[in-house]
Amino acid sequence: MTDPQNRRKERAVTTRHSFGERFTDHMVMLEWTADQGWVDRPRLLPYGDLTFSPAMAGLHYGQVVFEGLKAHRRQDGTLATFRPDAHARRFRQSARRLAMPELPEELFLEAVDAFVGRDGDLLPADDPALSLYLRPVLFASEPCLALRPARQYTFLLMGFVTGGFFSDRPDPVSVLITRDFSRAAPGGTGQAKCAGNYAGAFLAQQAAAEAGCHQAVWLDPVERRWIEEMGGMNLFFVRGTGRAVEVVTPPLTGTLLPGVTRDTLLTLGAQRGYTVREERISVDQWRSQSESGVITETFACGTAALVTPVGEVRDGEDRWLIGNAKPGQVTMELRDALRDLHEGRAADTHGWLRTCAVSEPLRV
Ligand SMILES: Cc1ncc(COP(=O)(O)O)c(C=O)c1O
């Protein structure tokens, strides 16, 4: 490998347990103004710092929405992005909720293709656990502190190579039920992927870590009784074994994020013959049904973490295990089904993968 290539790879490939710390060499940029709308087409630029006014509206009033999606190298060597159209749709919905301009799907896809086409070669051919995580973000860049939607916005798309949010292995995580905070409110922004939702969640995540847990679980904001989601992931519960498996996930109440992985797993689960259902599950049910063996597995899912088993739950002084606190069979089957799709071992019957033109791996 030549020196520049070496530097390029070193810069881009995160250590397996870091996430979003080192970025690839390029990014995509596009502007919107009230006068011109989207200004031209997405531009591919070297990754680097940008200059903005201290009065940039997004910094003060939080008009910031983002997405997270991945490109994978398939076993035939080609690169493909997973469900970028679904992420483009959610990006638009998030922007609409924050009174921001909606990026048309074709521009979102053009930005994704430009980025993956340029930096996708960093994904090696021999390590399918690595993927290219793409982070599109749109923020109010108008230098104006008037309390109204901004009249100028900047779209950026950057990315990094990652081995997974937790780790490459499906190690079960422990979770703490959040009792003191709510992530979202009815009529609020819970179903939008906006920056403020994450800032408001960090304290609960800190409390979970202080209690010795990996993640915080959110309850519904009204009764504080129904399970909603977990950190940056949706949750699924498995009942039964063998042919009678039931896979359920909380319904989209407006206060949790409609995950693309959640939607994918509902389809993959039904395809495998499981009964899949959206169903409200209370904390009490989660506990009693786990203890009685009715709930056999619980797992979290999301773009970054794929499918991750939940092994242990804490709720104040209470504590219970899910199954034998090891990765369950249904969890692993769905995880493998998703990975098989990503890595091209399973046929893409739903048209979920968008193949990218440039697919030569970086030669080592
Ligand atoms: C709060 C929240 N819930 C759920 C998810 C899972 O969504 P997806 O499967 O689209 O990554 C995410 C990640 O984007 C998230 O941030």
Structure description:
The chain folds into two domains: 3-167 and 346-356, D-amino Acid Aminotransferase, Chain A, domain 1, CATH 3.30.470.10; 173-326, D-amino Acid Aminotransferase, subunit A, domain 2 (D-amino Acid Aminotransferase, Chain A, domain 2, Alpha-Beta Barrel). With 364 residues, the protein is of the alpha+beta class. The longest helix is centred in the first third of the chain and has 15 residues, at 105-119. It contains nine helices and 17 strands. The radius of gyration is 21 Å and the shape is globular. It has helices at residues 3-12, 57-61, 84-97, 105-119, 195-199, 202-210, 260-271, 283-292, 329-342; strands at residues 26-33, 37-46, 64-66, 69-73, 79-82, 131-140, 152-162, 173-177, 215-219, 227-230, 233-239, 246-249, 275-278, 295-302, 306-315, 318-321, 353-356. Residues 68, 229, 232-234, 257, 259-262, 302-303 line the site of pyridoxal-5'-phosphate (PLP).
Tell me, what's the shape? globular
What fraction of residues sit in β-strands?
25-35%
Distance between the termini: 5 Å
What is the CATH C level class of the largest domain, in words?
A: Alpha Beta
- Element order, helices and strands? HEEHEEEHHEEEHHEEEEHEHEEEHE
Mean pLDDT over all positions: 93
Corresponding CATH architecture of the largest domain? 2-Layer Sandwich
| SSE class | alpha+beta
Task: Give the total of domains.
Answer: 2
SS summary, helix count: 9
